[in-house]
Amino acid sequence: METYEKILNLNNEFEANLLKEVLTDRQIPHGIIPAEDTALGGIMGMEFGWGYVEAPERYRQEITKLYKEISKKK
């Protein structure tokens, strides 16, 4: 089993869902991890973003490229 690493931060749930759909369609293994911090009232989200995507290191360039393409279309 491959080790997953943090690839990039996500700004919001919309971005996360869109990237998840693209990565799933391309059969790229990944995880979308929300930065849920209800105990702190959402302050962590303001500091570190909505969450992040993790995947095997070998997919870093491809995921980063796809994220940039998605970000341009918003």
Describe what this molecule looks like in 3D.
- By secondary structure, the chain is of the alpha+beta class.
- The mean pLDDT is 86.
- The protein contains three helices and three strands; from the N terminus they run βαβαβα.
So what's the CATH class?
A: Alpha Beta
Total strands: the figure is 3
Alpha-beta content class? alpha+beta
Mean pLDDT: 86
Order of helices and strands: EHEHEH
Please name the CATH architecture: 2-Layer Sandwich
- CATH topology: the name is Alpha-Beta Plaits
Distance between the termini: 34 Å
Low-pLDDT segments: none
Quick rundown:
By secondary structure, the protein is an alpha+beta fold.
Notable characteristics:
globular; Alpha-Beta Plaits; alpha+beta; 3 strands; three-stranded antiparallel β-sheet; 74 residues
Blueprint (SSEs and pairs):
Layout: E1 4-10, H1 13-25, E2 31-34, H2 43-48, E3 51-56, H3 60-73
Antiparallel strand pairs: 1-3, 2-3
Helix pairs in contact: 1-3
